[in-house]
Design brief:
This protein is of the alpha/beta class. It folds into two domains: 205 residues, DHBP synthase; 95 residues, Rossmann fold (3-Layer(aba) Sandwich), CATH 3.40.50. Helix content is 26%, strand content 18%. The protein contains nine helices and 15 strands. The strands form two sheets. The chain has an eleven-stranded mixed β-sheet with strand order 1-8-2-3-7-4-6-5-9-10-11, with helices on both faces. It has a four-stranded parallel β-sheet with strand order 12-15-13-14. The structure holds threonylcarbamoyladenylate and magnesium ion. Threonylcarbamoyladenylate binds next to strand 5 and strand 6.
Length: 326
């Protein structure tokens, strides 16, 4: 099987109704979608991604009203966020209803729910009478796809159809939040900034889980986003000298390091925008992964706006992979 890439929403609807998988565009990254209420379809998702069954999936729907079909959406804090940011790059952890198979949530009593902000996918979801489970459309442990072609390169032989919605314009996955008696917890930094969240709920978030604080919580495996070449975070271009005997790619945040021994340089945002840098991050890592480099050096982003999510991804891309997490 080699996936067809196209824009035929009706074809995608029919495949999903037959419990088959379709890659779908979202504003964050492309997702690998299947009927969230069908154990058969969900099993296909885990298989195609080679994803361990302990890592739960996010369920996508087209409107706030539809969430009640499969989850309890009662938290006032989360409703406030939904009103402000949905559709958008935020995922809510909610108590699940019984029609959501345990496979989707890896046995947890909660389910991740998101309304993606992409016109094609919203149209698709409106035409379905079930929500879709959709993890990022990459093999487990590898960089998330931000274009239809990225999906075709990595999962093209596993699925029949890729719905093409152009390049993802946020570029990092959704921010995952959960309400607790103590306040709002952020389980994954992502496309909606902490600043925007706090402004909306008019209080500070009570905790932010990062790759280093909870390496084994769901969704927070320390090694992830592997581009196929070792990635090393550096704080300043001066540190690059130590690697000058190697074939190096250098991903700068906003300024060219101008070092003669570096083979390839990419700049994530010449204007220093963390939003623009997030858009380019995964495509750049992926492109550098194909250059047969010995090492990819990368500078962290400033810790504000989407910079915190970028740095979280970079830490994980540079973490040593453990055999049990392949
Ligand atoms: O932007 C996104 O969220 C993209 C697009 C396709 O929507 N999806 C995505 O899915 O990033 P995935 O599967 O690559 O990451 C979802 C993360 C997982 O790592 C999982 O552990 C966490 O969400 N998650 C899902 N359900 C959860 C739950 N009930 N409790 C805690 N974490 C959960
Ligand atoms: Mg993923």
């Amino acid at each position: 099987m080699q996936a067809e890439i196209g824009t035929n929403i009706q074809h995608a609807v029919e495949l999903l109704q037959k419990e088959q998988l379709v890659a779908i565009p979202t504003e964050t990254v492309y997702g690998l979608a299947g009927n969230a209420l069908s154990s058969t379809a969900v099993t296909h998702i885990f298989k195609a991604k080679n994803r361990p069954s302990f890592d739960p999936l996010i369920v996508h729907t087209s409107s706030i009203d539809r969430i009640a079909n499969f989850a309890f959406f009662e938290s006032e804090r989360l409703q406030k966020l939904a009103k402000a940011f949905c559709p958008g790059p935020i995922t809510f952890i909610l108590p699940k209803k019984t029609n959501v198979p345990d496979l989707v949530t890896s046995g947890h009593p909660t389910v991740g729910v998101r309304i993606p902000n992409h016109p094609i996918t919203l149209k698709l979801l409106e035409q379905l009478d079930f929500p879709v489970a959709a993890p990022s459309a990459n093999p487990f442990g590898f960089t998330s796809p931000t274009s239809a072609q990225h999906v075709a390169n990595q999962l093209g032989n596993q699925i029949p159809y890729i719905l093409d919605g152009g390049s993802a314009n946020v570029g990092v996955e959704s921010t995952i939040v959960e309400d607790t008696p103590n306040g709002l917890q952020v389980l994954r930094l992502g496309g909606l900034s902490i600043e925007d969240i706090e402004k909306c709920i008019e209080e500070p978030v009570v905790s932010i889980k990062t790759s280093s604080s909870t390496p084994h919580a769901p969704g927070m495996l320390s090694s992830h986003y592997n581009p196929g070449t070792p990635v090393q975070l550096i704080q300043s271009p001066l540190e690059a000298e130590a690697y000058s005997s190697k074939k190096i790619g250098y991903i700068a945040f906003s300024q060219n390091p101008n070092l003669s021994f570096i083979e390839n340089v990419a700049i994530l945002s010449a204007s220093g925008s963390t939003t623009e840098a997030a858009q380019h991050l995964f495509a750049t890592l992926r492109a550098f992964g194909q250059l047969n480099l010995d090492l990819i050096l990368v500078e962290p982003a400033p810790d504000k706006g989407l910079g915190t999510a970028i740095n979280d991804r970079l830490k994980r891309a540079s973490a040593t992979r453990k055999t049990e997490e392949t």
